[in-house]
């Protein structure tokens, strides 16, 4: 490996050190050149003085923005330098030159529209603020996985290529699989339930789901990072919500503690929901929307984007950034339990965080006969689900679970306007590269 340490590890008045990274900024003040070098951990200032190191001073005249360089030298305390330390160089080497002009400025705070940023994503990803989003994202996923590992959930991987869809036909991406038609997976739903029938008891998956929706919103993408959970022997959907609530609280706490630098860079004051998340019924949600905001969702069986946002405001004012809406009406979704006797229509719930739906879940129908009845009522082609129906027919414990959109979670935690900013290389109906 090339001999170097991270910029954040450079201590003033230490012995000679070497760092390497991209040239973030060049300031030429006559007999003095300031080079700000950037690596994954931050920025460091190198001061080239004509009088002190004439050869290196001469060499640095040719440096260009975003060149990859390595510098060794003596770290000195400096009030003006980022991090309070600068390096007086004794060695300087350009490892790789960057073409110029750059299609995107990395160091300057110039407003660039999202489409240009995504067209030049590899460069955009170099920006410290963009890197901060993905460091946060990594922290969030790791913390979430840590919680489920500690609680004894089994890490699973379900297939991404399937014969049919779990969530409905219109949103499937068809592919050619050898000589037969197949689809990209919309959700691990059927497989995680089959694993409940197989006795795995509690599983989680950090996976990918594909949705061929024709959207143009700031909260939809075609390729989604999904965190799926399923657990057996639940009494009801409250047990599932408990798991979601505790795991999310843990992940947010970890991020608040471990990603202070990133949160600062993004100017985010992360509000960890320490109190119990309110759980309101769908009817109560409609009631709040009607009486407080005079808002009626177009589809009376679902909350619309505006409804979620307004409910978010309502609960945020009461100190609850996260809450559940439980029991959707007429939710005849074959895998969800219908429970009219509970006075709620179904054991389905959505989690809303900062005014946006983050996850959907519920208690499932484990009685195969009832499930097939609903499928037939709803016109679902049971032939496409034989493998699933059969798997559940040999004894299945009561179970439930949910799918959480990781990209939406990152969007909300990092306070980003558009979900695509939370994805390294996002896919939407108009974007297939980079
Ligand atoms: P659902 O379809 O509601 O439920 O998806 C779960 C969560 O995934 C995210 N999500 C999306 N994010 C970005 N772009 C999209 N196009 C998109 N579609 C969905 C959302 C959403 O809440 N099988 C069920 C889960 C379950 O019941 O276990 C399912 O997939 O955050």
UniProtKB/TrEMBL annotation:
GO biological processes: aspartyl-tRNA aminoacylation
Residues reported in the UniProt entry to bind Mg(2+) 3: 357
Record InterPro entries: Aa-tRNA-synt_II, aa-tRNA-synth_II, aa-tRNA-synth_II/BPL/LPL, Asp-tRNA_synthase_2, Asp/Asn-tRNA-synth_IIb, NA-bd_OB-fold, NA-bd_OB_tRNA
Binding site for L-aspartate: 167, 211, 360, 364
Keywords attached to this entry: Aminoacyl-tRNA synthetase, ATP-binding, Cytoplasm, Ligase, Magnesium, Metal-binding, Nucleotide-binding, Protein biosynthesis
Keyword ATP-binding: yes
PROSITE patterns: AA_TRNA_LIGASE_II (PS50862)
Binding partners and assembly: Homodimer.
Function, as annotated: Aspartyl-tRNA synthetase with relaxed tRNA specificity since it is able to aspartylate not only its cognate tRNA(Asp) but also tRNA(Asn). Reaction proceeds in two steps: L-aspartate is first activated by ATP to form Asp-AMP and then transferred to the acceptor end of tRNA(Asp/Asn).
Family to which the UniProt record says this protein belongs: Belongs to the class-II aminoacyl-tRNA synthetase family. Type 2 subfamily.
Name of this protein: Aspartate--tRNA(Asp/Asn) ligase
